[in-house]
Amino acid sequence: MDIGHIGLRQRLQLEVFRQMRHNQARLHPLRQLFWECTMRCNLHCRHCGSDCKATALHPDMPADDFLHAVDSIRPHVNPHEVMIVITGGEPLMRDDLADVGRTLHDRGFSWGIVTNGWLLDEARLRELLAAGMTSLTISLDGLRDDHDWMRGRRGCFDRTWRAIKLLCRTRGLTWDVDTCVNRRNFPHLDDMRQALEAAGVGRWRLLTIFPMGRAASDPDMIVTDDEFRALMDYIDRQRDDFRNGRTSMLCYYGCEGFLGAYEGKTRNHFFHCDAGISVASVLIDGSISACSSIRADYHQGNIYRDDLWTVWQNGFKPYRDHTWMRRLEPCADCKMWRYCEGGGMHQRGEGGRLMLCRFNALGE
Amino acid sequence: MGKFKNLLLNKINIMLGAVLSMLGWSGCDEVFNSEDLYGCPYSYYQLEGAVLDEEEKPIVNIRVATKWIFSADDNFSKTDTTFTDADGRYIFFTQDGYSDSVHVVVDDPQHGTFAPDSADVRLIHTGLHSDETWCSGTYVGKADFKLKKRD
Questions:
Q1: Based on the domain organization, do B83 and B15 belong to the same domain?
Q2: What is the spatial distance between Cα A109 and Cα A98, in angstroms, rounded to a whole number?
Q3: For B81-139, what is each residue's pLDDT tens digit?
Q4: What residues contact residue A347 under an 8 Å CB cut-off, 6+ apart?
Q5: Could you tell me which residues come within 8 angstroms of residue A363 by beta carbon, excluding any fewer than 6 positions away?
Q6: Which of A225, A327, B10, B102 falls 20 to 30 Å from B55 in CA-CA distance?
Q7: What is the pLDDT of residue B28?
Q8: Are the C-beta atoms of A199 and A165 separated by less than 8 Å?
Q9: Could you report the per-residue pLDDT of A257-300, keeping only the tens digit for each?
Q10: CA–CA separation, A285 and A300 (whole Å)
Q11: Which chain B residues are closer than 8 Å to A78 by Cβ?
Q12: What is the Cα B6 distance to its own chain's centre?
């Protein structure tokens, strides 16, 4: 596939979507609020952008502090349209997770978690569902050897797999498996796909790792350009199988980067970065941001000092208007700027430098 | 941004979504749901019943108002109003987040003939919709009223 060749119909779609995206930035409806509830974690993942430790240098945010921030936005939103996603570290390390979830549910919000699955057994899952949890992402980075290698703890695969089998038997929860594709698990993706399908997994999200955190200095973490292109082709084929009923598992790529001719083929939507447009986050120290992987340079305030709703309404300017990225390479001369507009905010490093351009990676 | 401007932009995006559909894009309901994992669940609700007088005759065109309770602290709810038909029957359909009860009030402000009545109705879950990711199914309820005439 010629990555730069976008057919007429696809180009028209992208033009229409571009206008929708700009309108959405003006509207900036808050739809997802991430809460980095703890930095504690029971694993030691090779690619983690967080500096998680079992005890964590930064204490957990008191639940009341976060709930206070949530209450500040409540009069201004329809809570039924706002999903609160609890992340970490590992959220299941918090004993009060169900209590917080129940409180959010009682206030009308939907909520979910992102977990490594180690602590997710039947009792805990039942407790969280009873507290109103409606969404969950569980991370699995390969079959046994690959997953344990990636997660830095022997036995991790068995615990995660047990949790996945449990989720496959659970109703009333929307969930997916997410996999960070790296150089080690890339050759075994299809084995993994078969295992997930056989287990009954309905949704599989494939992500590529970004050169930040621990991953920045680990060459096994970042797939080559050829592997990335092969991954796009793989996902495209899987999605075609799904559309034609050959598989019941929907596969999709994560939110990262404009993909040129692959747009509309590997995800359920065209590329857009929702950070600051419909996504906000409250980080462990109270910082107000969008995604937790975005640099601190782009933090917009702090809940211990600022009103979250006021910040949401009046801040996030670099998120909602990307023209500042146009001045920086490689965006300055990029012919795909109209449809990409600088990629995702988390792809921006020091001084706004674009750390990795997926479109360029596909084209080389 | 003003409410009118917001409304206009939303309408424009809906129209543009329709244009995307015409251009062959099949994922319009998830255009901005960047990961459909992070959407919000919703359910369908149906409430119906009959309003009769003490002689079991249907009361026509009497007001039936509902308050759907969507949060445990009653801080978030939705109201709706309808009038009974020629058979004294009413029906409500709505779609929103989680609720398992609705407060129903029947009154006659137009003529003042009948004394008002009300009830809290428990909604019963009827099952899951299989083809909509975030749909938690349909809840149904039934509430019949027998109104007394005012003295």
A1: no
A2: 14
A3: 999 999 999 999 888 776 778 899 999 888 889 999 999 999 888 876 545 566 778 88
A4: A210, A256, A257, A354, A355, A356, A357
A5: A3, A4, A260
A6: B102
A7: 42
A8: yes
A9: 889 889 889 988 888 889 999 999 999 999 999 987 787 788 99
A10: 13
A11: 76
A12: 24
Q: What average pLDDT does the segment A64-92 reach?
A: 93
Q: Which amino acid is at A147?
A: H
Q: What's the N-to-C CA distance of chain A in angstroms?
A: 12
Do B49 and B25 lie in a common domain?
A: no
Candidate from B9, B27, B136 with C-beta closest to A269: B27
Structure tokens at A100: 């917080």
pTM (predicted TM-score): 0.82
Q: Are residues B54 and B109 in the same domain?
A: yes
Phi, psi (deg, nearest 5) at residue B137: 110, -165
Domain count, chain B: 2
Rounded to whole angstroms, what are the CA distances from A1 to A204, A223, A284?
24, 19, 43
Q: State whether B61 and B117 are in the same domain.
A: yes
- Predicted-complex ipTM score: 0.77
**Portion of chain B with pLDDT greater than 90, in percent:** 38
* Sign of the alpha-carbon dihedral angle for A228, A168, A82, A291: negative
Q: Which of residues 299-358 of A touch B (CB under 8 A)?
A: none
A263 touches chain B (CB under 8 A): no
Quick one: B28 and B48 in the same domain? no
Burial of A236 (0-12, 13-18, 19+ CB in 10 A): middle
Greater pLDDT, B29 or B76: B76
Interface check A132 vs B, CB under 8 A: yes
